[in-house]
Amino acid sequence: MQTPLKDSTPKHLRFTDILFAPIGCLIQSSPIVMLVIILIISIVGSYLYYNVNSDLWGFASPDFDRFTVLNNFQTIQSNQNQEWKISYEFSVASRFQGVVRHVTPIREVKFPMLTHDILVTSGDFADPEIVKTRVSNHHFTWSCDCGVKPNGAINLLHTVPANQEIYQQLLDIRSGDQVEISGNEILKIDSLNSEGNSAGWWQDSGCNTLLVQSVKIIESTK
Fold first, then answer.
1. pLDDT band of 17, cuts 50, 70, 90
2. Mean pLDDT throughout 152-174?
3. Measuring CA to CA, which residue among 178, 153, 169 is closest to residue 213?
4. CA-to-CA distance for 140 and 19, rounded, in angstroms?
5. Which of 12, 63, 199, 203 has the most CB within a 10 Å radius?
6. Are 76 and 70 in contact (CB under 8 A)?
7. Nearest to residue 198, comparing CAs of 136, 127, 110, 134?
8. CB-CB neighbours of 182 under 10 Å
9. Are 167 and 213 in contact (CB under 8 A)?
10. Which residues contact 219 (CB under 8 A, 6 or more apart)?
């Protein structure tokens, strides 16, 4: 019986082979530890994706190149046969100025033009010692033990940046910053499928969906 000869030709290692070799060894030696690591990474990644004002090095940034804006921002079309019709509340721009008490990204797949929830406050609403605020699921609540309605204003903005530059400016906003954000208030965004039928809509309740055309960070906490 003849023993087969072994192939002595050196094999070329790819970068992925080297990169994932330690992970493969870890899975073989301790699959439970690997599962725990994957779970931790998933939890941290999910928190960063939904709660931190970041585009995650561009991976979570809206793809502005796939959008075509028509009729002075009354229609947005994508290269995937999607279309959105936008109606506005007023013919003139609105301005929101004050202290930011909350800023998180919006990750709505059906409405990718929506990018941020930003809570802009002034007067008593800007003071956490007087008014407590909370933002969850694109809605805000506030509470106060002062016995009377606080002075000032509180507005939760759902932002639609007019362009890539405005989006980058929104990414710079942090809680505690004093800002001025201006644009046209959106009444409703209707989503249409490739056949022109309704695929849902976005309409705020007590908040301010805004086509943002100007962002100023008057005082930064950085």
1. low
2. 97
3. 169
4. 44
5. 199
6. yes
7. 110
8. 16
9. no
10. 177, 178
What is the average pLDDT score of the chain? Answer: 88
- Spell out the domain ranges in the chain: 16-51, 64-219
Q: How far apart are CA 12 and CA 72, in angstroms?
A: 56
Structure tokens belonging to residue 183:
């644009």
Is domain 64-219 annotated with CATH 3.30.2350.20? Answer: no
Among all chains, which residue has been given the structure tokens 């004093």? 178
Secondary structure (3-state) at 130: coil
Tokens 């070329």 locate to: 12
Q: How far apart are CA 151 and CA 87, in angstroms?
A: 31
Average pLDDT rounded to a whole number, residues 166-190: 98
Residue 187, token pair as written in the block: 């009444």
pLDDT in tens, 97-128: 999 999 999 999 999 999 999 999 999 999 99
Query: Which pTM was predicted?
Result: 0.83
Beta-strand runs (E) in the chain: 67-70, 75-78, 83-88, 94-105, 116-121, 131-136, 139-144, 154-161, 178-192, 198-202, 208-219
